[in-house]
């Protein structure tokens, strides 16, 4: 069931680009504040993906957007674990999708930036 807490606005390619830029800025900020983490993970990026409810809405335009869950996956480093399921809230920055009721200080919907390292071979 769709409630007034979800936006039915269509997610466009430019919205996905905005989310990718937000994730990139967050990675740059994280690695500048924690250079040891950046040394081990800056070149181990596998992918950045829109996930959960907003991803379903992108596909079906029926689910609605409550928030954006953007996952960043890194190739695991054997000597330095990535902070397990790191989750940082960020403001989408535009009110196109309305606001998040739990973050009235945000201009737009909440973007949860979640990071995880996973075991995989290089290449």
Give a structural overview.
The chain is an alpha+beta fold. It has one domain (13-118). 30% of the residues lie in helices and 24% in strands. The chain is built from three helices and four strands, in the order H-H-E-H-E-E-E. It has helices spanning 13-33, 35-41, 52-60; strands spanning 45-51, 68-75, 86-91, 110-118. Strands 1-2-4-3 form a four-stranded mixed β-sheet. The longest helix has 21 residues, at 13-33. It is elongated. The protein starts with 12 loop residues before the first helix and ends in a 5-residue tail after the last strand. The mean pLDDT is 93.
β-strand amount = 15-25%
Number of domains: 1
Elements, N to C (H/E):
HHEHEEE
- Radius of gyration (Å): 15 Å
**What is the terminal-to-terminal distance?**
42 Å
Shape, per Cα inertia axes: elongated
Helix amount, in percent?
25-40%
Low-confidence stretches: none
The helix count comes to 3
Helices and strands: which structural class? Answer: alpha+beta
The strands making up the biggest β-sheet line up spatially as 1-2-4-3
Query: Strand count, sense and closure of the main sheet?
Result: 4 strands, mixed
SSE topology:
Blueprint: H1 13-33, H2 35-41, E1 45-51, H3 52-60, E2 68-75, E3 86-91, E4 110-118
Parallel strand pairs: 2-4
Antiparallel strand pairs: 1-2, 3-4
Helix pairs in contact: 1-2
